[in-house]
Amino acid sequence: MEIRPVKLADAAALAEIYSPYVTETDVTFDTEIPTAELFEEKIRRITEFYPFIAAEEDGEVLGYAYAHEFRPRSAFVWSAETTVYVRRDRRGCGVGKALCLQLEKMLKGQGIINLYACITDTNAESIAFHERLGYKYIGCFENCGYKLGRWLGVVWLGKTVGGYDEPPAKVMRSGEPGKES
Q: Residue 39's Cα: distance from chain center in Å?
């Protein structure tokens, strides 16, 4: 299995991986299946600053992970929200862990210190997965979304991957020279 940067050509495969989570689960609050074109736009937008990576084996995309802005104000630049999705038939095979560990390494290399995961409160499997990766429970927003005929909350977990130097080091764009990627 290879972990590599996502390409625009991966958009259809990413949409295919994500679609069953939208239509069959409450893992995501999305209610409409995204198109490949929407994923292309997401790839463009995210990779302007953050890493967006894929796991591939024998030319097939097995899963993907990316980070995005935690909050829009500049004081939050040292924090990022992480996302990971794995093809449902490849869950439990180490794909998600490999993606998350590589994403974490890349974000730390950018100078990002705090990683956050926002997970539907009914998704005990993802909560446990993140806890095994060192994320700690922060809190829950109860009943903040409605999908599949019920109210759902979100659990926030966090992980610190750097030190709190004062002043903090500048955060670099993903792949910017001078930082590990």
A: 14
Phi, psi of 24 (to 5 degrees): -115, -5
In the chain, domain spans: 2-160
The pTM score is 0.93
Between CA 28 and CA 64 the distance in angstroms is 15
> Which amino acid makes up residue 94?
G
Q: In what order do the strands lie in the sheet with 114-120?
A: 2-5, 52-57, 60-69, 79-86, 114-120, 150-160, 136-147
2-160 — its CATH code?
3.40.630.30
- pLDDT by residue (tens digit) across 53-81? 999 999 999 999 999 999 999 999 999 99
Per-residue pLDDT, averaged over 169-181, amounts to: 70
Could you tell me the end-to-end alpha-carbon distance of the chain, in angstroms, rounded to an integer? 18
How far is the C-alpha of 102 from the C-alpha of 80, rounded, in Å? 15
pLDDT higher than threshold 60 for residue 181: no
